Amino acid sequence: MKMKTVVLCLLITLSASVCNAKNVVHQIEDSMPVDKWAHLGLGYIINDQLKRHTHLTPLERVLVVSGVAYAKEKWADEKFDSGDLAVTVAGSLFCEIKF
């Protein structure tokens, strides 16, 4: 799993530095604020740790991450942002993709 993640990061980095004309990865990175990337990463990390340390099914793990993200948006933030919630769940679903 670590090797796949490292290879994916290298491919994204190399594709961003090699191609200067109309780089799709760079456009995606620029279109999302840093906050959304943090939510995506944390959704992935929480789901990954649940996968490693619990006997939850994939659906249960996604539901737990959704619940945690909803609670954080509801009680910890001043303004409820459904976009943050959606991106966190997307990160959780990304963890379930088998490469």
Automatic annotation (TrEMBL):
Keyword Signal: yes
Species whose genome carries this gene: Pelosinus baikalensis
Source domain of life: Bacteria
Name listed for the protein in its UniProt record: Uncharacterized protein
Signal peptide: 1-21
Keywords: Signal
